[in-house]
Design a protein that fits this description.
Elements lengths: L7 H16 L5 E3 L3 E3 L4 H17 L8 E3 L9 H4 L3 H16 L24 E2 L2 H9 L10 H10 L1 E3 L11 E8 L5 H15 L4 E4 L5 H14 L6 E2 L8 E11 H11 L7 E4 L6 H13 L6 E5 L1 H10 L1 H7 L2 E5 L16 E3 L2 H10 L5 E2 L2 H4 L3
Length: about 375
Amino acid sequence: MLHGKEGEAKQKAMEILVALGRIYGASRMIRISSAQIAGVSYKTIGDAGLEYLRHMAALGGRVEIPSFLNPAGMDTEQWEAMGVPEDFAKKQIEVLDAYATMGIRTTCTCTPYLIGIRPKEGEHIAWSESSAVSFANSVLGARTNREGGPSALCAALCGVTPMYGLHLKENRVANLLVHVDANLENKTDYSIVGLLVGKKVKKGIPAFKGIKPNETQMKYMGAAMAASGSVALYFVEGVTSEWNVSPDAEKITITQKEMDELKAKINDADSADLITTGCPHASISELEEIAEMLEKKPVKKPFWICLSRNIKDEAVKSGLAARIEKNGGTLVADTCMVVAPLERMGFKSPAIDSGKATVYLPTMCRQKVLFGRLEEILWK
């Protein structure tokens, strides 16, 4: 591939992978079983990114392994109803077409593990969406670095990635031991813990004692740590398959007071013009919970539940979608509030239950946020 024997696209991709390997001291390449590619929303990649994708596709770039996409900037089937500008929609469709030309599945989700893509413990992959990387490494026990969108695409085209970082067992060691002295009742509480720990550990690896989160709670906590820091791997004693803590690990305690103070600090809006959940994308069990809440009290303001197309189709077939939509909710597939052009759609202050979204909405979308548990924000 490096010498052009399999085409120009693979040659360019391998040149990038070799350069990365040299930078990070990799001894060799390692075969991977799947790639998850970020850099999908037209909002984040713009015309330059679109041209790059078109160029690679025109050079004959075709993926070697199962490969799939991160969320796009809109629901591809109901973008007009959402209020997405037509010029944005046109460019977004061109982005997805370029990826599809290269053989990449246009899944458009940050939770591929909810639609059957669950690599096994020890399996080497090249994923790039930060919360998906965290979940794959920590909850599933797979092996991936936090790839950039271009490097994940290159890995998909070549079927390999440089063997460095979290692909190596000796690097999967926690340097921060965390005790949580607080009442963690649901995913938003775990999200706040994630924000605090991510900021503290930055690019390190934290390990938690004394908590027993379920998969949804780990999804939210990991996403928040990846957003406030750059955490790609964490351990939970008695929950995750791995538990490897350095004898020199720093020890910290997260208190209820710290959590309450951070929650208050994040809130900078008095009321919401959009209520949204599903960052990362919602599961069927989360939809069940939402349906029950709305049946007790319907929502009056626009309410997006962001999720994958596969999960939405499942919810439609089961009647779950109808229960939610009857009471004011809208299932929004393929996208999320963070990568949608909210500022061009007239929104200014969304209500959210996701720590990850609190990091990105103010910076990427110029939004003020109302943050809290879903039951706290649904009727604001």
